[in-house]
Amino acid sequence: MHRLTMPRQRLRNLIQKQPAATPYLPLVHTTDVYRMTNVLEDGVLEPRECDVFKGEPLLYFFYGRPSYRINSNEGATGLDHYLPVCILFRSNAVAPIKRIFPFDSGGFHRALYADAFHKDMRLDDFGLEPNTDTPGRVISLFFESADAYLRARSAPAVSLDPSELEAKSYLALISQRLSNTMDNRVSGIELQFEGPLAIDGAIEAIILPDTLYCSPFIQSKLTRSKIEALPYPQIDRQRPSEYVTKIFDLCFEYYRRSGLMK
After folding, report:
1. Dist CA 111 CA 32 (whole Å)
2. Whole-number Å distance between alpha carbons of 182 and 170
3. Angle formed at CA 78 by CA 77 and CA 81, multiple of 5 degrees
4. Distances in whole angstroms, Cα of residue 32 to Cα of each of 47, 51, 204, 209, 244
5. Integer Cα distance of 143 and 226 in angstroms
6. C-alpha 163: how far from its chain's center?
């Protein structure tokens, strides 16, 4: 039987008591070449429905990390259409925020984190205050620094009251070091926006395949909007999911140049 009471507020209240770690990081939205081309043409990022919050078209972002694996089930291809593109939005450009979770909500929905949680815990029990400084508060308690968060390295010691059961579950989840099926999305702070979202003046940089960047149309759009392009080499007959490491490298290199990461 499902619990009929309101969501637990323990984790939300605990996070609100923490100082916000700085620097503030961009919000990263992952899409693909086809959709990104349409976004640049239309000037708007449109929300899409998902399996978790049915009936709510939403835009999803990860705080600072390009963690989402777009088109992970697509096979090897020589076409650009499904290749990943990561848009780095300015942290204050996505407002008002609809929801924030300290992890990928889809992973919770698919019970990928079940070993760390009590069976009566609900996703809403982990919902955080939808403010721009909330991710920094999560980081200060569980990671200690933005640099450690970006590397998905939890703090070596976190002191929690025994009654902070949701916080203890989250700490157990992000502290796992052994091989399993979970990737760094277990500690990626997720933000949701109830779009559509106009992109003019909102984007810092875009990570995209070099084949797309070679387009005069794309270059003109990026130049006009003062968006920095971070191209990666496209390799024929490679799966979209195989570009993840290169995308992280480009993202972190950009952060280092911007003074956001050591």
Report:
1. 26
2. 14
3. 80
4. 14, 19, 18, 10, 13
5. 32
6. 29
Question: What are the residue boundaries of the structural domains of the chain, listed by start?
Answer: 10-257
Rg from Cα positions in the chain: 18
Two tokens, residue 185: 């999305």
* pLDDT tops 50 at residue 1: no
97-101 and 44-45: which strand pairing?
unpaired
Q: Which two tokens stand for residue 200?
A: 């003019």
Question: Taking residues 213-228, what's their average pLDDT?
Answer: 94
How buried is residue 4: exposed, middle or buried, by Cβ count under 10 Å (0-12/13-18/19+)?
exposed
1, 3, 82, 184 from 125: Cα distances, Å: 17, 11, 35, 21
Taking CA 134 as the corner, what is the angle to CA 141 and CA 71, rounded to the nearest 5 degrees? 100
The two tokens of residue 74 are: 């697509």
Contacts of residue 137, defined as CB under 8 A and 6 or more positions apart, other chains included, come to 15, 16, 18, 19, 20, 21
For residues 20, 186, 31, 147, the Cα torsion angle rounded to the nearest 10 degrees is: 40
pLDDT band at residue 5 using 50, 70 and 90 as cut-offs: confident
Q: Using CA atoms, how far apart are residues 19 and 197, in angstroms rounded to an integer?
A: 29
* Nearest to 193, CA basis, from 100, 123, 63: 100
Tokens 């875009």, located at residue: 206
Query: Which of left, alpha, beta for 76 (phi over 0: left; psi -120 to 50: alpha)?
Result: beta
Helix (H) or strand (E) holding 198: strand 197-198
Q: How far is CA 232 from the centre of its chain?
A: 20
Tokens matching residue 112: 């990928």
Per-residue pLDDT tens digits for 60-95: 999 999 998 888 888 888 889 999 999 999 999 999
